[in-house]
């Protein structure tokens, strides 16, 4: 089965980036206990002050979809929504490299 990955670009509402980053870092901590989540990295843009990028790699797309149904994940999404002005996601298929199992 192919791995599943995603680059998600979050544009925070003005002044809300750091609070959004905090919630996304909570999500990263939670992902640490999910074996199917191989990578979850939260990044801030050096050139766009309200932009946060999340890089994810999952063992498969089904594991990613299942994670979005988790009650704790859904609660974090609800907390984050008021802070977000926009979201763009780019699905990717990781094929190898350092850090990819």
Descriptive report:
Residues 4-92 form the ABM domain. The protein is an alpha+beta fold. Helices cover 32% and strands 34% of the residues. The longest helix has 15 residues, at 17-31. The protein starts with a strand and ends in a 9-residue tail after the last strand.
- Let me know the number of strands: 4
Name the assembly state.
Answer: single chain
In this structure, how is the largest beta sheet organized? 4 strands, antiparallel
Distance between the termini: 13 Å
Shape: globular
Protein name: Antibiotic biosynthesis monooxygenase
Keywords: Monooxygenase, Oxidoreductase
InterPro entries: ABM_dom, Dimeric_a/b-barrel
Pfam families: ABM (PF03992)
Task: Please render the helix and strand layout as text.
Elements: E1 4-12, H1 17-31, E2 37-44, E3 51-58, H2 61-67, H3 71-80, E4 84-92
Antiparallel strand pairs: 1-3, 1-4, 2-3
Structural features:
about 30% helix; 3 helices; four-stranded antiparallel beta sheet; about 100 residues
Question: In brief, what are we looking at here?
Answer:
InterPro entries: ABM_dom, Dimeric_a/b-barrel. It contains 3 helices and 4 strands. By secondary structure, the protein is an alpha+beta fold.
